[in-house]
Amino acid sequence: MDTASTATAEEEVTRLEDLPESCLAHVLALTSPRDACRCAAVSPSFREAAESDAVWDRFLPPDYRAVLLRCCSGRPPPLSSKKDAYLRLSDGAVLVDGGDTAVWLARGSGAKCVALSARKLSLPWDDGEFSWRWTPHPRSRFAEVAQLVHCTGLDIYGRLPAAALTPATDYAAYLVFDVADEGHRGLSFPDQETTVAVGGRAASRHAVCLRPDDDEARKFRGMARADGGDDGVRQPALRDDRWSEIEMGRLRIDDAMAVKEEEEVMVSFEVLEWYPKRGLIVEAVKFRPV
Q1: Based on the domain organization, do 120 and 244 belong to the same domain?
Q2: Is residue 245 part of a domain?
Q3: 274 partner at 20 to 30 Å CA-CA among 115, 149, 165, 207?
Q4: What are the tens digits of pLDDT across the range 21-36?
């Protein structure tokens, strides 16, 4: 091939940078927020496409405007672009429903995360109105948390519309809690159970223990567990903000459930034995992608 033919062939090669911005944006919208941000460093044309509303509109949940309206008393904050809206929802939790529910986006994937405050949960009142004390907490994003004063039967339930979560996404539900430094009781026995159900069907059930303590278990029950151990019993993890969380179970919302208003996710924490309990501080039940 002569020199002229070679030059002509090279001129006919189409590079990615030569594609219209709309084409690049369409491709980037099929990736993830993290990948789109990485591609922005490839070239100026990629950066322009990666910043476009066409890309970030795909990463935002369909109800993002409603979420922003609910947190701002009908006045959405000024947003310069769809990416700005995405960053607003992924930088920190937005409080909705009168401040009793927190919603935010997982920055890497764009999946919705939801936390139901203690006020949105069903708490046992078998000992009357003095079973729980509602109080502010310096480490909570919510106005109040619930501290258990005294009860014998302890079961905590939470409900969430399936449509509130991102479909085709694997989630874990967590109970976010603390234990009073003094005066706690009855929270150390490995006879506690969590259940996660979707659409009335149990998705997972696990044995858990909020505050593992063999000495306390022996003191109140007179002996250790009959099986001599706690194999398979889930234990809490201490977070950086010093709240503890324990995984209640996992779930997945399919596309059919996401469009049915009546479909619900229900989570529960229950102590299977009846004995005095106190000192549990409940902040929230949280749903986040895994």
Answers
A1: yes
A2: yes
A3: 115
A4: 889 889 999 999 999 9
